[in-house]
Amino acid sequence: MEPRSAAAVGIDFPYTARTTCYIEIHDDGRVTHGDDRAACARAVAGKSRLFAVWPGEWSSHLFMIDDLDEYAKAQGIKHDQNRTGLEEHVHDVEWTEATGRNPNSRSPYISIRLTLTCGCEIHDLGTFASQMQEQRGWAIATSVGWGSSSGPEGTSYSLRVRRKTLGI
Ligand SMILES: [Zn+2]
To answer: What's the 148 CA to ligand 1 centre distance in angstroms?
Structure first.
């Protein structure tokens, strides 16, 4: 059976689905599995080939990962403006502490409302959190709920941020 082309499936290919299983065939014939950054680098360098098993309801299909650019973007190895809504630049942000904080709260995190005046949108909180960590040292909680609301002044986001890292 010939493997199918993941590139032909395009953006709908389930690169990050939990059920997608990656197989790496190294140029010395070794077969390993996994989808980490090192595997991507080897595949880009032509030192191995990546395949993925996409399990279906009745049968599974073997795909060749032949669009490594798309693969790297889906895995977050390479920045993707379309998926994340975020440019790779220093963001211009305005933020205020959200009202209604319990003064007795001992949580090290506070809620803020944030707007991005640089024109970016947050589609992927993990990417935004790591950018803000780099740019301002903020520690944004990524394991809790966050939200956005759109109004006449644009979109604002409610986020939880470790208070100390905001300098307040
Ligand atoms: Zn921006």
So the answer is: 16
